[in-house]
Amino acid sequence: MLEIVIPEQRVPVLKECDVLVCGAGPAGIAAAVVAARAGLKTLLVERWFFAGGMGTASLLGTFHTSDRGKEVIQGFMREMFERGMRRGWCRQYPNYPMSHETHEFDIEGLQILCEEILAEAKVEVLYTMVAGDILFAGDSYPVGLFFSFIVRRIYCILDTRHKEEKQKWI
Questions:
Q1: Which regions of 23-141 does DSSP assign to beta strands (E)?
Q2: 77 in helix, strand or coil?
Q3: Per the count of CB atoms within 10 A, which of 24, 31, 101, 103 is most buried?
């Protein structure tokens, strides 16, 4: 197997936080907002220049919260739906909860709502950042390595970028 040696380098520490969340889709936004509301200094990093995940990036405003008999996804998403419905950006399908598709968002409204909720919770968001590796450096706390900087003194890292939500507790 071909190997490449990466020389030691100094990378600036840009941020310190209690919780680092990777990915600003519904799961990442929920994790970041709940952590920030609990009083933890929370940093959310997103590879694109907007929040909302597939709902905003791929214009997929349909959400599935039912098992075709009862609502099975609640909590933070229920709050998103209610806030969106009050502003005319979200509608609940008439046969709710008897269908898999239960709610539909106006895409621009969803994007605005995501930004507002993150700002209200005082979540710091860094857009156009691609997450890299988790390293341990000196003080035994993990650091999140990105292309050009390091976030350090993280107590909890939530990676919501993939279908399986990965959680690493330190």
A1: 42-46, 62-64, 90-92, 101-105, 124-127, 131-136
A2: helix
A3: 24
